[in-house]
Amino acid sequence: MIVELQEEKLKERRLISTTIDISGKLRIVNGFRLKLIRLRIKLTLLKVIVKCYRNPVDWIRALRYLIQLRRRFLGNNKVRKMAHINGKYHIGIYTPGWKSKIYEQFIASQLNDFKQITNLKVNRFNNIFFAITKKCALQCEHCFEWDNLNKKEVLETSELHAIVQKIQDKGVSQIHLSGGEPLIKMDALVEILKGADKSSEFWVVTSGFKLNDTNAKRLKEAGLTGAIISLDHFIPELHNKFRHFNDAYYWVEEAVKNANNNNLITALSLCATKDFISEDNLMSYMTLAKELKVSFVQLLEPKAVGHYSNKDIILNNEQIDLLENFFRKMNFNKEYSTYPIIVYHGYYQRRQGCFSGGKKGIYIDTDGDMNACPFCHKKTGNVLDSNFEQNLEILKNEGCKSYNMY
Ligand code: SF4
After folding, report:
1. Per residue in 126-172, pLDDT tens?
2. Has the keyword Iron been applied to this entry (predicted)?
3. Which terminus of the chain has a smaller tally of CB atoms within 10 A, N or C?
4. In terms of Cα–Cα distance, which of 142, 165, 170, 92 is closest to 311?
5. Per-residue pLDDT reduced to its tens digit, 327-351
6. Ligand 1 centroid to 87 CA: how many Å?
7. Given the DSSP bridges, would you call strands 172-178 and 201-206 parallel, antiparallel or unpaired?
């Protein structure tokens, strides 16, 4: 029954994709314009390097370091597109947009790993995920916060502020606000954004629930950069089933439309399950993402945490190969240069190791406790504790158990 429904919807979806007008607001840059932008980005890298170091020998070595760092993620391949929104160019959802002070600070912070920078402030973190509420209307199959969902809140709004301030004081390029469903706490969310300093980009990680036009506008005005909206199937009924919520798909389309209309960067996030993974399904998903005019699609591999604890959900090598080949095809092949850019942690982590686990990122849960990442839950002290630094060091030394190369 589900297979028949899927085939029928696939045909419908393909029909739509051949008739819909995708020109106009699509924010993907490619071709010659991309080459020019890349050249200008390289000039920015040189500018940052010269600011960071006095010795010309260091300039050359620092540039080489940045090139090698990029190669560790992508090899000799180049992503054939970039997203252009609000005058900034974005290569991914975990790298701040160029051109901006935040981007320059981010580059200086990477250079600090090559050779310590003494004349500029560098960020301690690249990205921090911060779950600001336990509340959520959905009941997703894969929810990593399942054990805390809809329990009594622990953190007051003043503590949410205090945590953001503390991590911004340490220096952080991006803060991703999640939950539960962060938009359930709209007022607190807006307050956090307005109260934060402008040294970090802010994103929300949302199911799309309540991301109506009014809320999108409020978030944009308060300083939000983008929204990562979860969509686990291109067939509405199957997404709703996965999320145990009849309006889940409706809210995804609403959220993408409203976020796009208010100049927020949009990304769809797919939990690529064993049942979902096939070339056909992935292509249909990307076709929908392109129709919706999102700039990024994030591929997440299921992890045995929260609602997925003790379940047989881990992908096998064949499924991972299929995902990796699809990632390469969509990002590195000219033919697909008008599709959204795929962001795929598993791909980078298998080559580069994990940047989270206290090294360049942490996950702060709804109690304010530090964890290695949203999928590795092992509380290592509260961010507001006076011994935050020691706890961070403990977390960092324990590192990531899954991808411990870095
Ligand atoms: S995964 Fe997100 S949207 Fe789904 S139940 Fe958990 S918190 Fe809610």
Report:
1. 999 999 999 999 999 999 999 999 999 999 999 999 999 999 999 99
2. yes
3. N
4. 142
5. 999 999 999 999 999 999 999 989 8
6. 32
7. parallel
